[in-house]
Amino acid sequence: MGVKGKLGWQLKTDKVSKVLFQANYRELMNLLMSTSASVDEINTKMKDIGFRVGETLLMDYADKIREHAVDFHQFAKTLQLAYKVNSGQEFSSIQISDDKRTIKFTDEKCPVCHGVVITDMPGLQYCALISGVFDAVMKLRGFSADSFQESCRATGDDVCTWTLRLLA
Question: What is the arithmetic mean of pLDDT over 139-152?
Fold first, then answer.
């Protein structure tokens, strides 16, 4: 990030405490865990919440984005910037498939599940909120795509990985 970007991040971007965010997120997950019948139901609810969050974020930032992605694979840069603005860090890696119909985002230090360890809920996608945000951005920008969390540090994986696929 250049000097201009660092200044913008420090001075112009609204921030919330990481501890506050994680505490709220953890309590939301605890509520879903105690009121849901299955891990799949928790994942679906969290992804739905993420979709609504994504709608809000996109509406808030749409006017600030100078150039909108035209092709699906161009969203890799847009979503990297959005992740940076909202989490304070970039994805560790981004991979675009040769046919440009799949994008994989990986974070080795995911701010959503940092410090969380869950060993008794196989299949839980603790960071499914991110998938929902991706879905909202894709839908609102006119792309038929889906996303899912492929791996999660909270449930024992080495990294958090989200995959976006262009459907049509």
Answer: 92
In the predicted structure, residue 114 carries a pLDDT above the cut 60: yes
DSSP three-state, residue 102 = strand
Residue 152 has pLDDT above 90, yes or no: yes
Any idea what the CATH number is for the domain that residue 17 is in?
Answer: 3.30.1380.20
Neighbouring residues of 9: CB distance < 8 A, sequence distance ≥ 6: 1, 84, 85, 88
Domain that holds residue 104: 12-166
CA distance to 36, 129, 155, per residue, from 119 (Å): 18, 20, 6
Structural domains in the chain (count): 1
- DSSP H helical ranges for the chain: 3-11, 18-35, 39-62, 75-87, 128-140
